[in-house]
Automatic annotation (TrEMBL):
This is Cytochrome P450. InterPro entries: Cyt_P450, Cyt_P450_E_grp-I, Cyt_P450_sf. GO terms for molecular function: heme binding; iron ion binding; monooxygenase activity; oxidoreductase activity, acting on paired donors, with incorporation or reduction of molecular oxygen. Belongs to the cytochrome P450 family. The chain crosses the membrane at residues 13-34. The lineage of its organism: Eukaryota, Viridiplantae, Streptophyta, Embryophyta, Tracheophyta. It comes from Solanum bulbocastanum (Wild potato). Keywords: Heme, Iron, Membrane, Metal-binding, Oxidoreductase, Transmembrane, Transmembrane helix.
Length: 496
């Protein structure tokens, strides 16, 4: 290369460098302007929402309940959020059954939770959803897998949960929400993956994976609450703010999920009883398996922990209910006799009623959203424009007097009993386990876990709230309901 070529090369390089610098500068300038404008708009939206409910209600879900009660159709349109919210059972049935195909999760929802849940069953539609539903239904419906689930739960109760509470029966306070998160995390890992994280050991070890899982759930929910999606998308592109935290949390989650899968392949999975081993016989895609692992965890950990926390919250305020649960157990099982099989659960009608009543008032999933594919009208006459987010609200539905009577705000297990037997309600009136084609596949095993814990603890301990909770609990943001600050309790051994 001669001197002239070098000169022109340097000159060209200099020109291109200046052009690249100008383009980058313009990009950042546009980003700054857009971000400032979006921030201002979001602040306006946030101010509108906040000033509308924070002075009267401590939770957004209570504000929505208030608004829904005031409308004859029990359906509202929050225009600033582009969201239709309903507590009308006819609308719920229409979305989840009658016009199921017109109300999928949708690309918007899948994008919001895509980094966290990937292609897991809770975040997909169409063939991917049908495949996972079919596989899960086949496995979870087997007597052998239900017996295995009961065995895992009973072992965790006997070997860890009860010994832990024994250490506190002479004094001290426990956060039951934290305890139940650890308990349900151990159970779902053992049941689904054949892995024991030992989170409920007496030393209560800190699990980096569990912490990352909580953070990813919280930050993913924050995305869903963002009025303008471009805000979080820009943050993700530049890896800043909460999006940077989310990315780091998901890295930790992915490492453990990949290690679980690697260990399964190394040890062989054809003869294992856990759920993941059964899926691995049909799926080889590592990323897809990772997404299924995360979905199992979300279904089996957070919802169970939420339901147990709420159950002991309401039980703590109703000691007469605890007395009735013990009396039924003594009558059905025998004094001081433990549950020995999955089948015995069906005879505990009052306990079943208590669990359902607790979740009526405090559902683990307070609301669920779909996105309308084509212009439509809901049964109550509400017009739904294509692309609109439509949310049904189990939390609000549990507080509607026309559905549950003038005592809808009261905890009354007897509303579920007829002549001493538990009676199911219309699932579209009580969509705590969803309903229609997307009904919760693990419903029966979740109920076994909830009732096993409730029965085991209430027959051994006096469980009391460590501080008065006279107000409605304040909930923390997340994909599942959780008490802000946990649930502090004390335990005393029942005198012989």
């Amino acid at each position: 290369m001669d001197h002239l070529d070098v000169f022109w090369w340097l000159k060209s390089f200099h020109v291109y460098s200046i052009l690249i610098f100008i383009i980058i500068s313009l990009f950042f300038l546009i980003f700054y302007i857009v971000r400032v404008r979006l921030w201002c708009n979001c602040e306006i939206c946030h101010a509108y929402i906040t000033t509308s409910w924070s002075s009267q209600f401590i939770n957004l879900c209570d504000w929505y309940t208030h608004l829904l009660k005031k409308t004859p159709t029990r359906t509202i349109h929050i225009h600033v959020l582009g969201n239709i919210i309903t507590s009308n059972p006819q609308n719920v049935e229409y979305m989840l059954k009658t016009r199921f195909d017109n109300y999928p999760k949708g690309k918007t929802f899948s994008t919001i939770l895509g980094d966290f849940l990937g292609r897991g069953i809770f975040n997909v539609d169409g063939d991917l959803w049908r495949f996972q539903k079919r596989m899960s239904s086949l496995e979870l419906g087997k007597v052998s897998i239900r017996s295995y689930a009961f065995e895992v739960v009973k072992n965790e109760i006997d070997k860890r949960l009860i010994p832990l509470l024994d250490e506190y029966k002479q004094g001290g306070v426990l956060d039951f929400q934290d305890v139940f998160r650890r308990f349900s995390f151990d159970c779902i890992c053992r049941f689904s993956f054949g892995l024991d994280p030992k989170c409920l050991e007496s030393s209560l070890p800190i699990s980096q994976f569990a912490l990352s899982f909580d953070l990813a759930s919280k930050l993913s929910a924050k995305r869903a609450m963002t009025t303008l999606p471009i805000v979080w998308k820009i943050n993700r592109f530049f890896n800043i703010g909460s999006e940077k935290e989310l990315r780091e949390a998901i890295k930790v989650i992915n490492i453990l999920a990949q290690e679980v899968i690697r260990q399964k392949r190394k040890l062989g999975f054809s003869n294992h009883r856990d759920l993941l081993s059964r899926f691995m016989g049909s799926i080889s895609d590592e990323t897809y398996l990772r997404d299924i692992v995360i979905s199992f965890l979300l279904a089996g950990r957070d919802t169970i922990a939420s339901a147990l926390t709420s159950f002991f919250y309401v039980i703590g305020n109703h000691p007469e209910v605890t007395k009735s649960i013990r009396e039924e157990a003594n009558r059905v099982l025998g004094t001081n006799e433990d549950l020995t099989s999955f089948e015995q659960m069906s005879e505990l009608h009052y306990l079943q009623a208590c669990v359902y009543e607790s979740m009526r008032l405090y559902p683990p999933i307070q609301f669920d959203s779909k996105f309308c594919l084509e212009d439509d009208f809901l049964p109550d006459g509400t017009f739904v424009k294509k692309g609109t987010r439509v949310t049904y609200h189990p939390y609000a539905m549990g507080r509607m007097e026309e559905l549950w009577g003038c005592d809808a705000l009261e905890f009354k297990p007897q509303r579920w009993l007829k002549d001493g037997f538990f009676v199911q309600e219309n699932p579209f009136k009580y969509p705590v386990f969803q309903a229609g084609l997307r009904v919760c596949l693990g419903k029966e095993m979740a109920l076994v876990e909830l009732k096993s814990v409730a029965l085991s603890l209430l027959r051994r301990f006096h469980v009391e709230l460590a501080q008065p909770y006279h107000h409605t609990p304040r909930f923390s943001p997340g994909l599942t309901a959780s008490f802000n600050g946990g649930l502090l309790i004390s335990v005393r051994e029942i005198s012989p």
